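Please complete every field before forwarding. Incomplete forms are returned to the sender.

SECTION A: IDENTIFIERS
Entry label: holo-106
Bound molecule: zinc ion
Molecule representation: SMILES string

SECTION B: INPUTS
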Amino acid sequence: MTRKGGPRPKHVPMRTCVACRVTQPKRQLIRVVRTLAGPVEVDLTGKKNGRGAYLCPNRACWGRALKSNILDIALRTTLTADDRARLAAFAETLGEAAAPAAPAGA
Ligand SMILES: [Zn+2]
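SECTION C: PREDICTED COMPLEX
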């Protein structure tokens, strides 16, 4: 097997946030993974083995995901209270939803 050298088109892997369904470059999303050992974890390296789901780096999407069973479905598991607590704690470290809503006023 040989691999041709030379420049290859830059491919940016895209992923969809499971909460808001917006597609973004993978690197701009945060991966949540159901590890082979069982627990659901935040995977900041994006390299852990297991079934993954992606969320935007903002509290709105995490809140939405944690209040529903979106992640359970995406990860094909049932999140334990521990899992949810761990993810909620991580969400606390995130900023609010993007748009720095400037008060509309003239
Ligand atoms: Zn999102």
